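Appendix B. One record, verbatim.
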Amino acid sequence: MPFRAPVPEFRFLFEHIVGFGKVTATPRFAEADAATVEAILGEAGKLCEEALAPVRRSGDLHPARLENGVVRTSPGFADAYRAIAEGGWIAVSARPEHGGMGLPLTVSTAINDMMSASCVALQLNPLMTQGQIEALENHASAMIKNLYLPKLVSGEWSGTMNLTEPQAGSDVGALRSKAEPLGDGSYAITGQKIFISWGDSDFSENVCHLVLARLPDASPGTKGLSLFLVPKLIPDDSGKPGVTNAVKVVSLEHKMGLHGSPTAVMQYDGATGWIVGPEHGGMAAMFTMMNNARLGVGAQGIGCAEGAFQQALEHAMERRQGRSPVPDGNGTIIDHADVRRMLATMKAELFAARSIALSTAVALDMANATDDPGWQAQAALLTPIAKAYGTDTGIAVAELGIQIHGGMGYIEETGAAQFYRDARVTAIYEGTNGIQSIDLVGRKMMDGGAAAIRLIEEIVTGADIAQHTLPELARSVRNAAKTLRDTTDWLVTQPPNDRFAVAVPYLRAFARVLGAHFHLRSALADPGGAREAHARFFVARLLPEHIGLCAHVREGSEGVYALSPEALAA
């Protein structure tokens, strides 16, 4: 099935839903006018349709493999990556002084969404590099910036993020990798890292690893971690890749999905690296990359949902089974009520998740352009919601896509299952969705819920504006916002573990209400049209879930811990 890049959808979202005009009104992003962004998204859409989408199945059927210590990538991936790099798509939001376009993150997020829909396994490579670029821009020395950033921005070199170790997954503070000063400004890095996405490839001239490790005088836990840049090939005096560093790929994981993306076990045996940021300041520097990646991973989930929806819709419009229950229907399964329900759910969830992700990007752009603490707080609040809801949506929509295909959805020949298998890890990596939820009710509520309440008040204001045009929809959204406000007021008074026990339903409730808010905006922009119909579907059939989710939140942790390990095993 040919992939169609949803460029018109992004145009609508930018103009009517997420407030992108505020970003382009700032001096920093004034050059990102509507015509420029339209042209960039159009060209990115062509890249996705013509270069990436054709290799999606190849990556699934012919996984990356390790051959005599060399990673061999899937057929067609090298050419597709070259198209990404030569088109400048890695550097869309990188700073101009190192060769980047300097465009808003909102534009990058839209492009990453489309790239993920066409081939998420390959898109993960530039996503990791983009995160590394941002970390180096904000924390690296001038020497590192001048040497590495032009190569990363051009796509000649690629970047990775090395946190996880066999004994230290989500508990990053438990990692044991060591860094010994060599006396010349460099360090010897020793240890093993696992789950390293794109730890190597056969199409990047060099691979640059950001590695968390401990200096000899480091304290225990995360406060003792430092961040180091460790290249696969050590640059020579002219900046070209030179001698091979003491780092290697030990093995590649055999995974449920993302077969085209090599997930490596990396071994560092006294590898030469250079510190990024201050000693023992590694987590602050790494979080710059991780926050970028979390929004990017949310966009990956949304992209998978887009691809799954397009394929399911085409199948439903072609597959004939049973009599059409709809007068003057087209005689295919799209006429059947349950199939129509599933497709409507996919479409409604996709719009809500995409709106939340792009609103997060807008908040990040505004925070970067203005240094306004209010935008910074909103961006921080929205990031875990965008990551968790975006990836949950990718999984749920891809699963519905399989169901719409019926038995053939379970047969690999159709490729419907690939969207689900590829999307499934997005709820796990870059911080599990449970951790995202805990971050929301924990760190992001340290202000007493002030940022959350401000956002809820925006939802109420939006409902008030819509009251005269769409009174029923506006009333439902306003009532939902009030329920969420009351739940938030209660939540911030609870002890930490009571919050953690109900963090996931709280995040889901917040996403439901935010999704309804954006659907209401969409309906206002298209009264009586298809977008109003989508909004009515979401508000009437999906928004009510927030009631049960908020009721779940108010149960706290008591019922969870009443189920002892013995009771669970009984």
